[in-house]
Amino acid sequence: MTDPVEQYEHELISTSLDVEQLDTTLFRSKSLWVPTRARGVFGGQVISQALFSATNTVEPDYALHSLHCYFLLSASASIPIIYFVETVRRGRTYTTRSVKASQSGRLIFIMLCSFQKPEPLQLSQQLAMSPNIPPPESIILEETRYDRLAVDETIHPRLRTWYQTLSQDRRRSPIEIRFISEGPDEKEGWVTMYWMKVKKRGLPDNFPQSFQKCMLAYLSDHHFTGAASRALGLTRTPGPRQQTMGSTLDHSIFFYNHEFDCTDYVLYVMSSPAAAHGRGVSLGRIYSQKGDLIAVLTQEGVLRVDPAKTAKAKEKEAKL
Question: Is the pLDDT higher at 51 or at 9?
Fold first, then answer.
């Protein structure tokens, strides 16, 4: 039986991540994608292309265990991004790379990533996956969810247009998403959960396990800053909580599992412990369906509202 999502034409993940090697440590993007209404190229694509470039300079017996990156400027999809990889340290167990991404002579992104020779006999522990998570097949695709929300005649026209835009983006994306739930949690604040996976079309039968981590890096930037905006109760409709700006400042991933498959569903659990001064931080955990913790993530983003509207709303509350 054909998966309904594969019936739509979408960007191939292999195309999204691919880079051209210009020299030993110099790479150039081939394809860039700007989400509708976004300020620049999708951040997950920049992370994954930078990581793909760095991985090409590392011996195969080293496995990526962490990356930390900063987004400095928005990138245009009309000009290729150049990735320069530099060896920071080469040790017996760990080796570190830095990646600087530039466009039109301007530095737009920097990343440090560290690779380790795996030590499987060392002790391990993990935070368990929440029980009773509904299986992905029991949940509608996110584009279907947006379609249903868009036909609600009671919503604001601007919100309807927004849902229609999101639905179109989801159909074109190489990532399949199914929204599970969101709500308050005593320990983690506001928690949101999704099933996500990479659409298989166009992927070769055999590719190195290191490519799985590049795909997960791409996947990991979906909805992540949104965890902080949802905790703040930000909206797309006019009012004191209308979000006027949102962009990613930095992103980190820590891998604790080297054997996973992004073309099978993974559980993405997101929360936000704090937001202030126009910034919000999101925390994430990605699990396999078996309950293995694959990665721990953090992201900080810019989240702004109109301060004049906020002040006016507070003034109104004070008079009540």
Answer: 51
